[in-house]
Design brief:
It is built from 18 helices and no strands. It is an all-alpha fold and 388 residues long.
Length: 388
């Protein structure tokens, strides 16, 4: 079959996932639809495994992984992290307790390899999953490849309802207390616009070119891979550090891939990498992974909540605000923003109350998601895979 037809088939599945995600307001994640559909087609024999490789997008996606991680490092200005430091620290505490609990308990009940397979995905998103799946495959641990797949695809169903429950309770306290707006509620857009006023190292006219921005990202990705070969430290960590540092010294603009108008096709190629990771995973492996996955999710979420409770006590936050901020690790953006929007609209009795809730909640929720899914999970997955 021609590669264009194969690409159309898979992109059609991705589009179907987007339709279901949009109509369900992100309750049905796009990637869950994609992974489930492709897995069923592979297991039924309707879709030969060779078709995935033949689409040629897999090779493109593999090249783009370090490039995308560099981009992730540019997603949010360092100044924003500083102003929202409490949300950052509370989220990191949740991640630490979650990963620690999974490594301890799952290792005792099953084995260390299974714990590592679940610890990365439970703390973040697609990149953490890809790093984990690739690491397991390189280590020859294909028997447990189903663990990160299942954790990655179902954790949204646990994270979003729990977040909505606690966030709705906290929103009611905002509604009843007109002084509930705290100094933590910075406007991310205003902060980012201040960041954008700083001069770039390269001439401003160069930074308007999509091709130059893409070249700079590829330079960062290639440098990360080179550092990996010289130091043995995972390229994902180098790419993340290069992105953060590059944005801080103004080599990269904020959200570089989006500035280069390349985010859509990049994400499509990345999803092909996820699809390719399903090759070799069998139904029997998925069934065998169910019990470990349940334990990983329960223990991981308990660790996130415990970290949030301790962080709330340290910073004197309401626990019903701290817990949702930490739980963003289970789904990230845009789910965190959509939940805040939905809660504000449903709990607020008028526009003034809705705005107050949005102003109070959107910044820490977004920062929590970026801290865990964008930064923390990549670091966790990269470090743990290196221990196998």
């Amino acid at each position: 079959m021609e590669p264009i037809y194969l690409a159309l088939l898979f992109i059609g599945i991705i589009a179907l996932g987007e339709v279901l995600s949009i109509t369900s307001r992100a309750r049905i994640p796009t990637l869950l639809v994609v992974v489930a559909t492709v897995f069923v087609l592979l297991q039924s024999g309707i879709l030969p495994e060779s078709y995935i490789e033949a689409s040629t997008f897999v090779a493109v996606g593999g090249v783009l992984v370090p490039v995308l991680i560099v981009h992730l490092g540019t997603m949010i200005p360092f100044s924003t992290m500083v102003k929202q430091y409490q949300a950052v620290v509370i989220t990191l505490m949740g991640l630490a307790f979650s990963v620690g609990a999974v490594l301890l308990i799952v290792s005792l009940l099953f084995n260390y390899e299974t714990a590592v397979a679940g610890a990365g995905p439970i703390t973040g998103g697609i990149i953490a999953y890809i790093v984990t799946a690739d690491g397991l495959r390189e280590a020859g641990m294909t028997a447990i490849l189903a663990v990160p797949v299942v954790v990655f695809t179902v954790q949204n169903f646990f994270g979003m309802p729990l977040t909505s429950f606690f966030l709705a309770r906290y929103a009611k306290t905002i509604r009843e207390d007109t002084s509930a707006v705290q100094g933590q509620a910075d406007d991310p857009d205003a902060i980012m616009s201040d960041h954008q006023k700083k001069r770039f190292i390269l001439p401003e006219s160069f930074m308007q070119s999509n091709f130059i921005l893409i070249f700079l990202l590829f330079c960062g990705g290639a440098l990360a891979v080179w550092f990996d070969g010289r130091t043995g430290v995972n390229a994902s960590l180098w790419a993340l550090a290069i992105g953060v540092a590059g944005a801080a010294v103004r080599i990269y603009p904020e959200k570089t891939i989006e500035k280069a108008n390349s985010s859509g096709i990049t994400m499509v190629a990345l999803i092909f990498v996820v699809i390719h990771s399903l090759v070799g995973v069998t139904w029997d492996q998925v069934v065998a992974a169910i019990v470990p996955v349940i334990v990983i999710i329960v223990v991981g979420i308990a660790g996130l909540i415990l970290g949030a409770l301790i962080g709330a006590k340290v910073f004197k936050w309401n626990v019903e605000k701290a817990i949702p901020v930490v739980l963003t690790a289970l789904y990230g953006f845009p789910g965190d923003y959509l939940i805040v929007e939905e809660i504000s609209r449903s709990v607020g009795r008028n526009e003034a109350e809705q705005k107050r809730m949005m102003d109070e909640l959107v910044a820490p929720m977004l920062i929590g998601g970026f801290t865990s899914v964008t930064v923390g999970s990549v670091a966790v997955a990269s470090l743990l895979i290196g221990t196998l």
